[in-house]
Amino acid sequence: MKKTYLYLIVAVGLIMMSCSGGGDDSNETQMPEENTAPTVPIQVYPLNNTICINNNIVFEWEESTDTEGNRITYTVEVSENNSFSPISKIETSASLSKLISLEKGKAFYWRIKATDNKSAASAYSPAMQFLTEGDGVSNHVPFAPSLIAPALNSEVDGTSTTLIWSASDADGDPLTYDVYLDTNSDPSTKVSENQSETTYNATGLSAASTYYFKVVVRDDKGGVSIGQIWSFTTK
Fold first, then answer.
1. What's the CA gap between 158 and 219, in Å, rounded?
2. CATH architecture of 146-234
3. Hey, which residues does 106 pair with through a beta bridge?
4. Which superfamily, per CATH, for 43-132?
5. Same topology between domain 43-132 and domain 146-234
6. What is d(CA 131, CA 122) in angstroms, rounded to the nearest whole number?
């Protein structure tokens, strides 16, 4: 009789084990969903070297695409220099335009990026430069210079290098340049003044040193733009 009870208990135990299956799947690690960033927005207005006759500007861009179809928000940044430091205005929009009020009679740069509702962000678009018309304006300030060489934060051979930049003026005025260069992060040593060339040969540099330089642009009517600070390192 005892053997019968023992067999019955073992049989019931086996049935319960088979019904319980392979365990609870609720604790299995869930793989995160893949999410890609939206494409970089394409700027429509204002484009490079645009003169905006109104300082209340409607910035426009083309729609970004998102592989997963996520909701997209756009971030517009406006600055007085192409390093975007500091930023004059930063605005967000869920549409393809944004009205932003800016100071009159100044040169600005703007860029835009797209971010989806899962926080994946695109890269910034290229910086576009534009001017806001001043009251009774008879002269526009020059645009801030753009770096050509050496590449930003690059390493150069030897103890000399040629600084090269480009600049433009909405009125077509002749431009001159002051060049500041030294090892301070905010260079104060003026190494060239009132030159018309967009190059400067920097010689006598120290080896294994980081140099900083900036270019101040002037037109012949008193308009002035101060360029951003660039840097390079000698070997």
1. 34
2. Sandwich (2.60)
3. none
4. Immunoglobulins (2.60.40.10)
5. yes
6. 26
pLDDT tens sequence across 181-219 = 999 999 999 999 999 999 999 999 999 999 999 999 999
Q: Which two tokens stand for residue 171?
A: 């009125």
Tally of CB atoms within 10 A around 183: 13
Decide: residue 72, CB within 10 A, 0-12 exposed, 13-18 middle, 19+ buried.
buried
DSSP 150-214: SPTTEEESTT-EEEEEE---TT---EEEEEEEESSSS---EEEEEE-SSEEEE-SPPTT-EEEEE
Question: How do residues 122-152 score in pLDDT, each as one tens digit?
Answer: 999 999 989 888 765 567 888 889 999 999 9
CA distance 70 to 44: 23
Cβ–Cβ < 8 Å for 48, 127? no
The DSSP-derived string for 101-124 is: E--SS-EEEEEEEEEETTS-BPPP
The string of pLDDT tens digits covering residues 81-91 is 888 989 999 99
For the chain, what are the domain ranges?
A: 43-132, 146-234
